[in-house]
Design brief:
Low-confidence stretches of chain A: none
Structural class of chain A: mainly beta
Helix content of chain B: under 10%
Radius of gyration of chain B: 13 Å
Shape of chain A: globular
Oligomer: heterodimer
Distance between the termini of chain A: 41 Å
Largest sheet of chain A: 6 strands, mixed
Strand content of chain A: over 45%
Strand content of chain B: over 45%
Shape of chain B: globular
Helix content of chain A: under 10%
Order of helices and strands of chain A: EEEEEEEEEEEE
Largest interface: A-B, 24 and 26 residues
Largest sheet of chain B: 7 strands, mixed
Number of helices of chain B: 0
Order of helices and strands of chain B: EEEEEEEEEEE
Distance between the termini of chain B: 37 Å
Structural class of chain B: mainly beta
């Protein structure tokens, strides 16, 4: 069965600082990988996704993520964080096209000014 | 992008009553929809996969008789929480995949259920 681990429950960064959110997955083959962001009381917004090809993927709002097969990781990065980035971030994995997602526990990002 | 809409956004009900939550795909036909549940400060847990015209597939541990899912058309899936109790209070989110797009699921805004 697939599983996703987000080891950091909370992360606090200063505005303007760089950000990296960690995600490790467990799956036998190459999965479909996603990062979503959720603001309080809201639904999910897709930041970026990886299916194949270039292992560094660009997303919306200046986010990027790198797929590293050897480490089973798909870490999310942003070079300069804005206060509006404060939210909860979920890494997710799917084993099939358009199929159900398995989510990690989420990482809450706090941005201090 | 594809739009998925849920209604109601929030609902408060008395213990023992039933509540229906609707999930609509507004600009595409969704043969498959997924229902997730999110407890406060926790991740999303898949409850069931809803297929148009057939019975839903429930995840292990989810009570079928408690959480009734109907996917009667290509644009509408409903989740009915029957005989709701306070422990059913949660944030329910639906999602749907768009035929032809590469694996992305689109999520509704979520519905917050509070059972008194």
């Amino acid at each position: 069965a697939q599983s996703v681990t987000q080891p950091d429950i909370h992360i606090t960064v200063s505005e303007g600082a760089s950000l990296e959110l960690r995600c490790n997955y467990s799956y036998g083959a190459t999965p479909y990988l996603f990062w979503y962001v959720q603001s309080p009381g809201q639904g999910l917004q897709l930041l970026l996704k990886y299916f194949s090809g270039d292992t560094l993927v660009q997303g919306i709002k200046g986010f990027e993520a790198e797929f590293k097969r050897s480490q089973s990781s798909f870490n999310l990065r942003k070079p300069s964080v804005h206060w509006s980035d404060a939210a909860e971030y979920f890494c997710a994995v799917s084993k099939e096209y358009g199929n159900k997602l398995v989510f990690g526990a989420g990482t809450i990002l706090r941005v201090k000014s | 992008g594809a739009v998925v809409s849920q209604h109601p956004s929030w609902v408060i009900c008395k213990s023992g009553t039933s509540v229906k939550i609707e999930c609509r795909s507004l600009d595409f036909q969704a043969t498959t929809m997924f229902w997730y549940r999110q407890f406060p400060k926790q991740s999303l847990m898949l409850m069931a996969t809803s297929n148009e015209g057939s019975k839903a597939t429930y995840e292990q541990g989810v009570e079928k008789d408690k959480f009734l899912i109907n996917h009667a058309s290509l644009t509408l899936s409903t989740l009915t929480v029957t005989s709701a109790h306070p422990e059913d209070s949660s944030f329910y989110i639906c999602s749907a995949s768009v035929p032809g797009l590469t694996g992305e699921l689109f999520f509704g805004e979520g519905s917050r259920l509070t059972v008194l």
